[in-house]
Structures are given as structure tokens and as C-alpha cells.
Request: fold
Amino acid sequence: MPSRVQALIRKIDMKSVVEANGLRRTFGDLVAVDGIDLSVSEGEVFGFLGPNGAGKSTAVRMLTTLLRPTDGQAFVGGYNVVSQASEVRKVIGVALQDAAIDPLMTGHELLKLQAVLHGIPRQSARDRGEELLERVGLSAAADRRVGTYSGGMRRRLDLALSLIHEPKILFLDEPTTGLDPTSRTALWEEVRRLNTEFGTTVFLTTQYLEEADELAGRIAIIDYGKIVREGSPADLKASIGAPTLRIDIDPQNLDKAQSVLSEFGIDRPARDGRVAIGLDGGVAKVAEVVNALEKQGVEVLHLELDAPSLDDVFAEATGRRLEGAETPDE
Amino acid sequence: MSSGLSEMKHSRQVAAAICMRGMRRIKARPVLIVPTIVMPVVLVISFTGAFSSLTRIEGYGTSNIYNWMAPYGALQGAVFAGIGAVGSSADDLEQGFFDRLLLTPGSRFPLLMGTVGYSAFRALIPTTAVFFFSLALGMTVPGGIIGVLSLYIATSFLAVVFCLIGLVILYKMKTQRSLMLMQVIAFGALFISVGQVPQSFMDGWLKIAARYNPITNVLELSRQGFLGDVAWSTTWPGLVALASMSFVAGGLAWRGLKKLAP
Reply:
């Protein structure tokens, strides 16, 4: 059976736990989220990818009941985020962008407080807290004030706090921003484990292509408050087709180079001092391209040929590269 | 019925946890409470030192300057205890911890009650400091234990009132800057009252303002046990003033919170 058909059958079988229809949020004249439609199935890791200010955090704040939508509807865990906000809050765990942790409290104190906030009986809270601290590797630091924790430790504690009530759906808003590679990898491992071992649905926002690629089974790309592409990373990349050829040249030869390259494939966005195309024919055509450029007196300083990436998907959809892209503040 | 009861129990636990968190923060960083203790103590020292003979004039109801000034100092400490509790909430708002509290299932009301409860407990610290400090310097308590109780009731509830007023402003402004506005309101309310001199010594607009300033009633409630016996006729106007201010400020703060976090 073709994999797409299998995926469709799986999707029909699975219950949708996050649904948004025409969800919109404005702040005065600024449209932060512009009528997005979303559907996330139970047990899925869903990646919400976009540059800073694209509307990711605003969307998450609406889905987690922290912000009321200006228009549209959203349901999380089957509950309306506006009229059944309290029910929504019972089934979700949330780790927001700036690990909202009181630096004057210890890990133990914060877990205890979080347990009370979610109405967990004292003994269960104690057991669950110890289990979570161990799982995120913070047992030894649990009696230290959070102010003395590193960025990675704070994120891990934030994750533990968001899991104290065993939520069915976990929202992670840019969970690895500002983390070193080791801490980032450790957090990815934990997210994977949560999803595979406990079946937790994960709604993850990120601006990192690698993170979305590594973790998400399905991705929605958001830009200027609108979803511009949606699908599995593999399908999105496959939709791009030809690999991307990037060539560094003397900026004075830019027009000449573009004219030569247009014969080999479609122009793709590239940073200054570089031209890029989707190279029809792939690696077999590289030598031909270099020869054609040299014939026109364009010196090739450096070249790269990459299989389509999520950055190419973003570039194809928005005309910009994700790395370094930024939209107005949310 | 049982769901309603368990919801009430949860609300009570949440409010208590938020209140306890505030007290733990003070334990973790005592400097948070230092200004709230030092300011009223300094007020008592400076005023009693500079105007030690003032109470020899007829009309104060006591010849002991500490008996006159200590309740005023304690109330000032309480006001700043209330503002300090708002400062913690402002920290939470600015640093994102408030979002964690807003993600609590159930009503938002315990979030407000927890902060208010914290302000009331916080007020006990400067009140106790001023009380024992003044006692050590020569203050007497002719009203006995009921007089002391009146002082504690007045200071705790005044802290609640100023906490609620501060929250109204904070929920509107959403920054620490709201505290500056609160200080202006606090000093204004305290100075235009019978804090320093009896009403009979005042004249013109100040006398009228002090008469209608509800803080005057609260001061009279807190001070009565240090001037003589506690009387119901002095107690009830103070309690009504505290209840009215709490009711109005509480209503506005609750509205502000619901607007901030629907």
C-alpha cells in the first residue's frame, strides 16, 4: 500500500486533539496570526516552524488559553479554548519560550507548587516529582535555587514542571532556544521519549530547521501569521524536487551568472554574494554549470549542492531563507 | 455538589500555595522585606526624636510620643507590605511566571486571593518590628491585648487594601512602573490623615480631607489601644473603612485580572 494512503488511513484513525479553524489574533493594526487552520492528531509530534515574529508564540498562547483569539475557533483535547478554557488547561502541559521559573525557588519547591496548582494529592505529587526530576537529570540539583541553574537545567526543569499532571498534550514553545548543542540534544531525546513511550502529543514551535526535521512527524510553516506550507518533512522536501545548487561569485558578476544559471533550473532565494538554483539533473549537471559560467567569465569561488531542505521549502514558499529571516515582533 | 466542594478545596489550596510562595521568597531573599521594616522603624525614630515633646500638648490623648507614632509607623509598614506583594506580582508578570499561574485549571480567583493573603502575612513582619521596637523604647499598651489585636487587624487589612489597589494598577500597566504610582497614592493617603497630628489641630482643606480620608478611621482603629481602652465606637468605623476599600479595590482588581487573563 502506498505510504501516503497509509498515512491518510492513520490520520483518519487518529483523533484530532488540536484543531484550529480560521484562528486570528490582532494587536491594534498588527495581525499576528492571520486565520490559521490546524489539525494535530493524538500521539503526533507537530512542528510549528517559522522565523522570529512569524506568529508562532501568539498561536500557542491562544491554543493554551493564555490569549483570547480575535476571531476563529480552536479546540484542544476536544475543548473550546475560550468557553472551556479551564478544561483545556487540565489536559495540557506548557513550557513557554522563556522558561518561566522563579529563580528564588528550588526545583523541589517549584514542583510542589506546580502540583498544587494542578490539584495533585501530596503523596502522588511527591512521587511524581521525584520521578520527573530523575528523568530530566535534576535530582541532585533539586534543592538548589533555580537562579543557580544553567540554561539547559532551567529548560529541563520547565519540562518536568509541565509534565507533573501527566498531560495528554504538551506545548513546547521554542524549547531549545539559547541552549548549547549537548543540552539541545538531551531535550530532543526527552521529547522523543515522551512521545514514543507515553504517547504524549507534542506541539512544538521552533525556528530551527534541524529541530523540526529531527522531531516533528508533521510540520506547518508559518510566516507573517499565515501557514504557508504543511506536511511531513519528507513530503515537504520532496515537493521541492531538484537539489539546490549554491554558488559564491564576485557580486559584480551577479546578473551574468543568473542569466547563465537560468538555463539549468529555477532561481532560488540566496544570501548576498551567492546565487542559487534548483538544479535539474542534480549532481550530473554540476560540471556543465561550472563550464558555462567560466565561458561567460564568471569565476566560481565556492559551490555547494544540497538535497532539498526545509529551508528550501521555506524559501520556495516565502521567497526568503529562514536563517536570518525575521518578521515584525509578535 | 462534591465537584463544587473539591473545586473550592482546590481554590483554597492554590491561594495558600501562592501565599506561601511569597513567604518562601522572603526567606530566600530577606532583603525583599528589609525596606518594609526599615522605613516605618526609621519613621518612628525620626519623628519621635524630633517631636518628642509634641504629645505634651493637650489633644493627643497620650503624653507618650511612641504611643502616638508607633501605630502610624506600623500602618506605613503595612502599606508598603501591600505594595511589596504587588512588586512580586509585577516580577511574575515581567518574567513570565504569571503565565504559569494562569495555566492553572479552575477559576482565576485564587490567584488574586493568594497574592492578597501574602500581603496580609507580609504586613505582620513590619507591624511586629515596629511594635517591639517601640515597646523597647518606652511605648505602653493601655488597651491591652485587644488594643494590640486592633493594631494587627488594621495593618493586615490595610496591606490587603493597598495590595488590591496596586493590583488594579499593575493589571492595567503590566510593569514594575506601576509601583511608582502606588507610592504616590500611598504617601498621599497617609499624609492626608491624622497620622501625625490629631484632627482638631488641623485647619482648612486638610482638616476636611483628613476627616473623609478612610485611612483616618483605620488609624483611629489601630491607635485606640495605645491611647486608652478599645471602644466599639472607634472600632467599627475603621472596620467599615477597611471593608469598603477592600470591596471596591477587590472588585476592580478582579475585573482587571479577568481583562488581563480572560
